[in-house]
Every structure is written in structure tokens, then in C-alpha cells.
Automatic annotation (TrEMBL):
<feature type="domain" description="ABC transporter">
    <location>
        <begin position="17"/>
        <end position="243"/>
    </location>
</feature>
<dbReference type="GO" id="GO:0005524">
    <property type="term" value="F:ATP binding"/>
</dbReference>
<keyword id="KW-0472">Membrane</keyword>
<keyword id="KW-0067">ATP-binding</keyword>
<dbReference type="InterPro" id="IPR003439">
    <property type="entry name" value="ABC_transporter-like_ATP-bd"/>
</dbReference>
<protein>
    <submittedName>
        <fullName>ABC transporter ATP-binding protein</fullName>
    </submittedName>
</protein>
<dbReference type="InterPro" id="IPR027417">
    <property type="entry name" value="P-loop_NTPase"/>
</dbReference>
<keyword id="KW-1003">Cell membrane</keyword>
<dbReference type="InterPro" id="IPR051782">
    <property type="entry name" value="ABC_Transporter_VariousFunc"/>
</dbReference>
<keyword id="KW-0547">Nucleotide-binding</keyword>
<keyword id="KW-0813">Transport</keyword>
<dbReference type="Pfam" id="PF00005">
    <property type="entry name" value="ABC_tran"/>
</dbReference>
<dbReference type="InterPro" id="IPR003593">
    <property type="entry name" value="AAA+_ATPase"/>
</dbReference>
<dbReference type="InterPro" id="IPR017871">
    <property type="entry name" value="ABC_transporter-like_CS"/>
</dbReference>
């Protein structure tokens, strides 16, 4: 399969992530089902799904850390099962659980990884180690869970990757640590047009950094959209069946029949601003704006 590309002047840039028909099952239970997904260069995508939806499995298959049962996935045009060393050097990854060399101290571990990457920012490493008050000479398995997660983040950022994949990167950090990490992400990564995939269950953190959200449900990416556009244009409309049948939304996200005690139906849909104005003036239906948490629940039923 040929990598899809984006034309920029005379240059042709492969999509950082391109997935087609990805399948993965465990003990006969399908987790990923004919999953298609691609991400544009410079995107910051929040990957959302309920616990057990397959977010970590998707990320591991994408990185070649777990074999898929079918389909294909490409990173910068390279098949993820046979990534070149040059492509690996363009990728940073923070796993949900620490995969550090815990018998080494932080200095030894960072020195090891520095040899693997042609672009290693030692000033960034030293600055973050000081800011987050991490000891260079303490054996890693003696660090707290939060300190290990910070060290994983430093390792992932040190070589200034073009694609950064974060699987619940701040789940073990306290609120101050999460704030510091997000500030670092915004200050030193986003301004470099790094492509970021950010899986998290902390929706308030996601809202601070994500440009786009992608919902993983029933083994597929069921919806992906710019976060601001989704929040502005999406409403739940409730009313009689025949009234809702007259609606002409630009996109219907989900529908629910016989809600409440009045035999009404509801639909989660997106409308143009002019349509929303007209709908708000009608007496035969009710409109409700939803926050990201409510949208998450609706999109992952």
C-alpha cells in the first residue's frame, strides 16, 4: 500500500499516521475491527474511549509493539512492522506503564538513549530534570511512580520527535505535575508543529492541548473532529418523532428513542450557526448544549 501524502510546495510529506483495516483480537474477542484512521502533520489529537475500548492496543499495534491480526499501519510511510532506524528517531512515546531500565540510574538511562538519537537536546533534559526535581544518580526502581512517569516524558521529549504518542502520560502525576507537563507540551512541542496523539481519561487536560478529538468505540474510530467545532455545533435535540424527522443537521452523531416519560425521542446532531438560531426559537423541541464529558459518554455508548 502506498502512503497517502500531503503536497506542500515542491515537497511531498507522508502522513505521520495512516491505518487501514486494522484488526486485533484476544482469545476470540475482537478489540479492533477494520479500523481506519489517518492523522495530518501538525495535528494534536486526543484519543478518547472507555476503559477497555482498546486505546492502548491501538497505540501498541501502531508502534509495532504488538502484532495486529490484519490490516496495515504506516508511520511516515514506513510499515510499522519494519520501521527504519531513521523513522524510529522521528517518534517519541510515553507508555501507560513505565518501560524504563529500572536497574540503571536516570543519568545512565538517558546516556544510553542519547546514543540512539541524532537529535538529542541535552539542555532540555537538564532543564526538565531540574524543574521536576528529579535525581540523576538515584536508581530508577527507587523512584516514585510519578517520578518514573516524569522521567519517561523527559526521555520522549529529549530527541525532539516529529510524532509524539502519549498513552495516559499523566495518570500518575498530581495536579501540579500535570500542569507542568502540559505547559512543557505547549511551550516546547506544539510550537514546533509536532504531531501529537494524546490518550487520556482526564478530559480537562485534553481540553487544554487537543486541537482534534477522536472517539474509539466498538473497535473503530467512530468520529474525529476539531474540538472547538464539535463543541460549538453539537446539541442534543429532544422532541416528538415527527418533529425530529423534519431536522436537516449537517451531521447526526447518535439517536435515542422514547426518552423520558413523554414518549419523546432525542438526537445528538451538529448544525450550522444559522440553523441553531432558528431551532432555539422553536417551541416544539428542546436544545441542550453538552460539555466534553457528556459528549464523551454519548459517543462511546
Amino acid at each position: 500500500m502506498h502512503a497517502q501524502t500531503t503536497q506542500t510546495g515542491s515537497q511531498s510529506i507522508s502522513h505521520p499516521i495512516q491505518i487501514r483495516g486494522l484488526n486485533k483480537s484476544f482469545s476470540g474477542q475482537s478489540v479492533l475491527k477494520e479500523l481506519d484512521w489517518h492523522i495530518e502533520p501538525g495535528s494534536i489529537v486526543g484519543l478518547l474511549g472507555r476503559n477497555g475500548a482498546g486505546k492502548s492496543t491501538l497505540i501498541e499495534c501502531l508502534l509495532g509493539l504488538r502484532d495486529a491480526d490484519g490490516g496495515s499501519s504506516l508511520l511516515f510511510g514506513d510499515n510499522t512492522r519494519q520501521l527504519s532506524q531513521a523513522t524510529r528517531a522521528r517518534i517519541g512515546y510515553v507508555p501507560q506503564r513505565s518501560d524504563l531500565f529500572e536497574w540503571l540510574n536516570a543519568r545512565q538511562m538517558l546516556d544510553y538513549f542519547r546514543q540512539l538519537y541524532p537529535h538529542w537536546n541535552e539542555d532540555k533534559v537538564n532543564s526538565l530534570m531540574r524543574t521536576w526535581e528529579l535525581p540523576f544518580d538515584k536508581v530508577i526502581n527507587k523512584l516514585s511512580v510519578g517520578q518514573k512517569q516524569r522521567l519517561s516524558i523527559i526521555r520522549a521529549l529529549a530527541h525532539e520527535p516529529e510524532l509524539l504518542i502519549l498513552d495516559e502520560p499523566v495518570s500518575s502525576l498530581d495536579p501540579a505535575g500535570r500542569r507542568d507537563f502540559l505547559r512543557e507540551l505547549i511551550d516546547s512541542v506544539i510550537e514546533k508543529q509536532t504531531t501529537i496523539v494524546f490518550s487520556t481519561h482526564i478530559l480537562s487536560d485534553l481540553e487544554r492541548v487537543a486541537m482534534n478529538v477522536a472517539f474509539l468505540n466498538h473497535g473503530r474510530i467512530v468520529h474525529q473532529q476539531a474540538l472547538d467545532d464539535m463543541m460549538d455545533s453539537t446539541v442534543r435535540v429532544t422532541g416528538k418523532t415527527q418533529v425530529l424527522a423534519q431536522l436537516t443537521p449537517k451531521r447526526t452523531l447518535s439517536a435515542c428513542r422514547n426518552t423520558g416519560t413523554q414518549g419523546e425521542d432525542s438526537v445528538l446532531a451538529q448544525f450550522e450557526p444559522q440553523q441553531l438560531e432558528l431551532l432555539q426559537s422553536r417551541q416544539d423541541m428542546r436544545l441542550e448544549k453538552l460539555g466534553l464529558e457528556d459528549l464523551f459518554i454519548e459517543m462511546t455508548r
